[in-house]
Amino acid sequence: MTQEITRLDSPIDVMYLMHEAFEAASARTEALAAEGEKGGDLKDFEESFGFWVKQLLYHATTEDTYMTDPLTDSQPARDNEAEHAELARQGGELIEFLDKGDSAGLEENVSAAIFALEEQQHKELVEKAQEVEQVLRKMMGEERVLTRTRRHLYRRVMALRVLEFDHFENEEAFVLPLVRESMTEHEMLAVAKHLLLDEGADDPRWIIDWVASELQPVQRKLLSDLEARFSEVPA
Fold it and tell me: How far is it, in rounded angstroms, from Cα 40 to Cα 33?
């Protein structure tokens, strides 16, 4: 992830481009969280975080379905799926911090996607968070609770970003080589198409257009060339 990507040797290598886009989005979100910790408006953070998590959840669930689930005898694939679940859990905790602080209104489909992944555990988390919040409000007063919430929010964003980075690093080191060995060119192309185009959405291009916006011109050309091959994949 530290080297500039100038070629895709196989269709699944588009994951390197996607990871680069995620790193740009998460870095931007962390910077906005840092501003919020100092007392600034959290509106821009809320929008950036909501989109980041929306992308992350679609990416993780699509990978599990089309890339790692077919690798039935692979421990790296199972580890990869476990890391996806942990990313979803931490993202859910961050959303609850937002909802309980002085900012609200994340897109409903983001919250719904997280609840679908970790529904029961997440409900228990909400209940515990409400109990703690009630005690803190009585002991410290509203203003100090919000200050603490902002501080915890920033720390959790940092933790989620570190987890994301570690996950991508492990995926590139252990999972992608296995995919290249186990899948045909056509199968990898189909996975790439699922990852980049959401056929069930009103705007199926909401993923690929975002990825392209985060890349340099040379990398955008690689992405465009790969998309041109999607016609080879049956609808």
Answer: 9
- Specify if 36 maps to a domain: yes
- How many residues can be counted in the chain? 235
Residue 17: domain span = 11-184
* 3-state SS assignment for residue 201: coil
Does residue 18 sit within a domain? yes
> Which is nearest to 84 in space by CA: 116, 107, 109, 108?
116
Residue 118: which residues within 8 A CB-CB, separation 6 or more?
Answer: 85, 88, 89, 92
What is the reported pTM?
Answer: 0.71
Of 26, 8, 30, 47, nearest to 165 (Cα)?
A: 26
What digits encode the pLDDT tens for the residues 67-102? 877 776 666 666 666 666 667 676 766 666 666 554
In a domain, 221, yes or no: no
Domain-located, residue 114 = yes
Look at residue 119 and give its three-state secondary structure. Answer: helix
CB atoms within 10 A of CB 231: 9
Helix (H, G, I), strand (E, B) or coil at 1: coil
Distance between CA atoms of residues 8 and 223, nearest Å: 9
Q: For the chain, what is the domain count?
A: 1
List the chain residues with pLDDT less than 50.
2, 102-126, 129, 132, 135-136, 139-140
